[in-house]
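Next comes a concrete protein, fold included:
___
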Amino acid sequence: MNEVLKEQFLIDKLSDDQKSVIADMNTYINDSLAKQQHAVAIIQGAAGTGKSVVLMQLVRQYMTDKHYKTALVVNHPELYKAYQDMAKDFSGLNQRDIRRPTALINDAQKNNHKYDVIFVDEAHLLYSKSEPYAHYRGKNQLTDLIHLAKIVVVVYDFNQVFQSKMYWSQELLLDTIGTHPYQQFNMDFQYRMIASDAQVDWMDKLTAQKPIAPFPNNSHFEFEVFSTAGALYEKIKVKNKKFGLSRVVATSGFPRINGRHNVEMDSFSLPWDEWDPQRTHWAKRESSITQVGTIYTLQGFDLNYVGMIIGPSFGYDAKTDSMTIIPEKYSHKEIFKKRQDLQFTSEQYQEFIANVLNVLIKRGKYGLYITAYDDALRERLLTLQRDN
């Protein structure tokens, strides 16, 4: 198995908190299987809390046991590749049991397949509405999965919702589960980043448009604000050469210039990440050091160091001393797609955009380097760094 994937998803030494969650979940899963019911187990936690680690321990336990008919689904193409890679080294696990949700649902409904356990990673990426363009004609993918299994184990982070077609809230989740029994397993301990609680709180307050404070200097987590994207990229290249898995990422909003849809700022100009059918996921490909990562290639993955370029859809309000979100400058319009069953407010669209930034700045285990396209926001961050 690739060591990068093993280190992220199949760590050898679990924490006491993780062991406790797994033990409680095993009890609930076995009780639900014995009762022959359509139950739901919810693993809920923020980015970096080790949700996928817990999920993969359960996957390894149940999906390699031939007493159970099981499946693992994920609606994220890069994570799908990663799990397919890991499956090759799981004795007794069939790669064909790792599916995208639409493919599994359509196949199971057509052939009347039923499951004991279906595991769903990044369940906040499940469609909560029909999406014919993606060949999904149901009304809600979680509803369909519940009907196919005795128990569905789902991983949710409501702060990683950033598209209307994949909109989930606690209320919508519980409405979808309806009268089916469920149990929630909360994970509120940080494992990805070596950052302190105060440093993670700084990131959350920044993206929540609260007053900006100096970044706390109370751990070994590296943090630096750069005056140019070019200098930030040079730093990331040094870190990548020394430690690997260091990449530049950015939020949407960069305009096309002379026909190029690059991320362009000062001396920096690189293309966005590109969809690639090869099995190696984007973060692990050596060539991706010359591209800019997005939420679509990095959600669910760890990096060692992140170079974050905050795009044009984020500005600065001197009156509130806070970063602001400018939805009209956010160029990825899929976020704003209309729905007949739900109406979204301007504040909710801003939350979607904020969630993208929050997820990206939390990808790095050991450090975050940051700059901003907006002159006023960048200067405010630099001033706080100089005065700190």
In short: DSSP finds twelve helices and 14 strands in the chain. The first helix runs from residue 3 to 9.
